[in-house]
Amino acid sequence: MFRSRSKDEKAPTDKVQVDLSKQTRDPQAPKGRATPKRAVAQSQRRSVAAAPTNRKEAMKRQREARRVDLAKQREALASGDERYLPARDKGPVRRFVRDFVDSRFCVAEYFLPLAVIILVLSMIRVGNVQNISLLLWLGVIVMIVVDSVGLVIRLKKQLKERFPNEPKRGAVAYGLMRTLQMRRLRLPKPQVKRGERP
Hints:
Elements: H1 12-21, H2 38-50, H3 55-79, H4 92-102, H5 111-123, H6 127-162, H7 171-179
Helix pairs in contact: 4-7, 5-6, 6-7
């Protein structure tokens, strides 16, 4: 264990020389690619170091990224910024439909307030008031149907004229759903005033 080496044993430097002799390339030869700049190398090291080490960390980062995306989307819905809008609201066709609906007065946008008033009237236990509430229900429904049919006809005509070569699938239904929302509560926010033509 603690004895001296014999003369017959090989020194460890011989082994190192054997390993160096097995190298396939000259250490002084160029390596075939440029040495990266310091900033590039550091950013690569940071990206490797920034990679999540476990599942919990990965889920936390994913939640954070989703939260940031949703915040951008909410801001875009308020401002009308096309870049961050949801897929259902993107594109020139959908923008035109929104502007077309927002520039007009629609009976359907007052459906909820009218429904509350009619519901309150129907709870009153007087025969004449209940009859009036039923007639109001009928009148509101007829007005909404007539207004919606007129809107569909005008909207289809305008879409054919302005966007003959673009897909318009679902655009009319999108416009009808927008008419059911009160103007102040619509998202994306209206970009045109009533009476303006898009």
